[in-house]
Specification:
The complex is a heterodimer of chains A (242) and B (462). Chain A contains seven helices and twelve strands. In chain A, 31% of the residues lie in helices and 31% in strands. With 462 residues, chain B is of the alpha/beta class. Chain B has two domains: 308 residues, Mur-like, catalytic domain (UDP-N-acetylmuramoyl-L-alanine:D-glutamate ligase, 3-Layer(aba) Sandwich); 139 residues, Mur ligase, C-terminal domain (Protein-Tyrosine Phosphatase, Chain A). The chains are: A alpha/beta (242), B alpha/beta (462). Chains A and B meet through α1, α2, β7 and α7 of A and α13 of B.
Chain lengths: 242, 462
């Protein structure tokens, strides 16, 4: 068995240890005897349907985000949306999350259009939200990460948040929501890297990919004691530094 | 006499002494804060009186080491040097160093100043101290929660360079495309230093490099030669931006494991050899930078080579300590590039001794530990020695090791440093050696523990 992990714009958008998310997906496949291939998808590359099994899209600096916003318009964005409709799993963090919404509105300059996978819009804010973040998700339980963003994301009426903020600021610092969920796609502001310390979330993405590609619904259990300890220590730290 | 200045200096001096007398640490920054409350222009005024001018050293990595190298060379040249030697490098820390090295009436006791500056504080420091020379080492991804994105720092630096005058000199690492791009077309004179070698090349850009794109046109840079992170010989095939010719070029670089480095530095059609007693390509860069700055202010090659040959590492950067019949080598790790280079040295020495990695997440370490995922920890996967983890975020490091493909039997999580240090020493065979890789505040804690055990001296006494 083999899964292809597509790292969207990894060479231009890879900040705050986002690589850890891709590593977590690949390693947790390999430890279960599933071959994992990491494919870098860059500016100008074409995206074909049903080639990749899991999509990851991380954050970037503003300058890089402008090029990426232009690149993802048109056929590529449509293919990505069709993949998600077809059940493909996706994780996006920060900049990638923002460009999966309708648009990102910078403090000055024109809006950066997104692809509207998530019914969400983001506007540059005056304050930077920096710190540990803990959320409660009805699907995944307690999730922990580190947020560092000034964009304020507001979810539209058809969007579900990923979870409720327990410690930290989340989507916009006001409504207590963090992230967005649609089919098997997840968007959020949680770095850390997110997946290694939240193994349930990694396994959700892998499981969705196996179901779509091979019709398999069960994952062999792994020894997650190091991950669980790191999760607990990060949550403890978030509570202590609140 | 400038009464306000004298009062500021006096307050700075007295509070520094009081803090040390009370045993509250080195008193390297708070006195400057107090002095600045009394005389907000204390730094401008004191530095303005230093006749031989100010040399400001900035960059993500190597500024403490490079500043120390440069200060040592200038002292060997019989100059009295004012220097924020402790590495306290915000305006308050620099002010404290100047207050401590001035007379009570506010006359600085020095012929020339070497000022290490924090990246975020750099524009303010430059504006206050009116430097004769600015030495720029590199710009790497560092504590993003504190400094923001690299582009933000680069833009702020660029704005500050636009205010420089033709009588000021910029000495720039020409191997760093971000630095050469932001120092183009300015009034100040610019000279470049860098490396020419084909021996120690990286096969590809490491993960998480921020300057992989041309700052002029946004196209990816191509590297015919890549030495360290994004430092190397680069060219943009799209717009023609490329590494300019070097004014100070190092060649014949030879790395000798964890022990030493040698190289030849060419300038103005002459060249001289440098042999360093500290290891790593990053220290070669530090030495080239310090030597270039010393040459630029008129010191001769012989004195430079002699001083750098005797240079020992700056506080905590790399330190060998004998303890309980073992040798403990402590190497500071504070950001992905620095950590990568330390691991590169350890891997090249095919490390078979135990190592302890201590990760804290206090403000000075960076509160966000995601940077661990940008470190190429995979370099350690081939070894067999145990790797212990400790510190406030030691558990995150243990997970990082696991996902790097290091066998779980080798990963040994220990708890807080206070309880794990002796356990780690126990794991080193008597007569053998072990490596400790701490983040900044973990290094301070480790040194305090070692000082209490009589194994090292306190840093402000160095």
């Amino acid at each position: 068995m083999k899964l292809s992990i597509c790292w969207l714009y990894g060479s231009s958008m890879n900040i705050y240890g986002d690589r850890g998310n891709v590593l977590a997906l690949a390693q947790r496949c390999r430890w279960r005897g599933i071959e994992a291939e990491i494919v870098q998808h860059g500016l100008g590359d074409s995206l074909e349907p049903r080639v990749h099994d899991i999509y990851f899209w991380g954050g970037g600096q503003d300058r890089e985000q402008i090029n990426v916003s232009a690149d993802v318009q048109g056929a590529k964005g449509e293919t990505l949306k069709a993949e998600i409709e077809d059940g493909a799993p996706l994780l996006s963090v920060c900049g990638g999350y923002q460009l999966l919404g309708h648009y990102y509105r910078p403090a000055d300059g024109a809006d950066l259009p997104g692809i509207g996978l998530f019914d969400a819009t983001t506007t540059a804010g005056n304050e930077r939200f920096i710190g540990n973040i803990v959320i409660e998700s009805s699907e995944f339980g307690e999730l922990v990460g580190f947020e560092n963003h000034s964009g304020l994301t507001h979810l539209g009426p058809t969007s579900e948040p990923l979870g409720k903020v327990r410690v930290g600021r989340g989507n916009n610092g006001v409504d207590g929501t963090e992230g967005c969920r649609y089919r098997n796609a997840i968007g959020c502001y949680m770095h850390g890297a997110l997946l290694p310390k939240n193994p349930l979330l990694s396994d959700f993405l892998i499981c969705a990919a196996l179901r779509r590609r091979y019709g398999i619904d069960v994952l062999p259990v792994l020894d997650d004691s190091l991950e669980t300890t790191a999760h607990a220590s990060a949550v403890g730290r978030a509570l202590a530094r609140r | 006499m400038d009464v306000r200045l004298a009062a500021g200096v006096t307050a700075g001096k007295l509070s520094g002494r009081a803090i040390r007398l009370l045993g509250r640490g080195g008193g390297t920054a708070a006195p400057g804060l107090i002095a600045n409350l009394i005389e907000p222009n204390i730094l401008n005024k004191l530095t303005g009186k230093v006749r031989g001018g100010r040399i400001v050293v900035a960059g993500t990595n190597g500024k403490t080491t490079t500043s120390r190298m440069l200060a040592n060379i200038l002292e060997q040249a019989d100059l009295r040097v004012i220097h924020n030697r402790s590495g306290s490098n915000l305006v308050r820390g620099i002010s404290a160093a100047f207050a401590a090295q001035s007379s009570w009436s506010g006359e600085p006791r020095g012929d020339i100043a070497v000022i290490e500056s924090d990246e975020a504080a750099f524009p303010d420091v430059v504006q206050r101290v009116n430097p004769r020379v600015i030495l720029l080492l590199n710009l790497f991804r560092d504590q993003l929660d504190r400094y923001g994105e690299l582009d933000t720092i680069a833009s702020r630096w660029r704005a500050s360079f636009e205010r420089l005058r033709p009588d000021q000199t910029l000495l720039v690492n020409g191997d760093d495309p971000a630095l050469t791009a932001i120092t183009e077309d300015i009034a100040a004179r610019r000279f470049l230093f860098g490396i020419e070698t084909s021996r120690y090349l990286l096969p590809e850009l490491p993960h998480a490099v921020d300057s992989a794109l041309c700052r002029r046109c946004g196209a990816p840079l191509r590297y015919p030669q890549l030495f360290l992170s994004h430092l190397g010989e680069y060219v943009c095939d799209s717009c023609g931006f490329r590494r300019p010719p070097l004014d100070f070029a190092a060649s014949e670089v030879e790395l000798h494991g964890l022990d030493s480095v040698s190289l030849q530095l060419a300038h103005d059609e002459s060249a001289f050899d440098l042999s360093l007693a500290i290891p790593g390509l990053y220290n070669a860069y530090n030495a080239i930078a310090a030597a270039s700055a010393a040459l630029a202010v008129g010191v001769g090659p012989a004195l430079i080579a002699e001083t750098l040959g005797e240079f020992r590492s700056a506080f905590g950067r790399i330190e060998r300590v004998s303890y309980r019949g073992r040798q403990v080598v402590i190497v500071l790790v504070k950001n992905p590039v620095g950590f990568d280079e330390v691991l590169r040295m350890l891997a090249a020495a095919s490390l078979s001794e135990p190592a302890l990695i201590v990760i804290n997440d206090l403000d000075a370490d960076g509160r966000d530990v995601s940077w661990l995922w940008d470190v190429n920890v995979e370099q350690l996967a081939d070894g067999s020695a145990p790797i212990y983890t400790s510190g406030i975020r030691g558990a995150d490091m243990a997970v990082r090791l696991k996902y790097a493909g290091i066998a779980t039997e080798r990963i040994q999580p220990l708890g807080a440093l206070a309880n794990s240090f002796e356990k780690f020493v126990d794991a080193i065979p008597e007569g053998g050696s072990g490596y400790i890789l701490p983040t900044y505040t973990a290094m301070l804690e480790l040194r305090r523990m070692l000082a209490r055990r009589g194994a090292v001296t306190d840093f402000w006494e160095q």
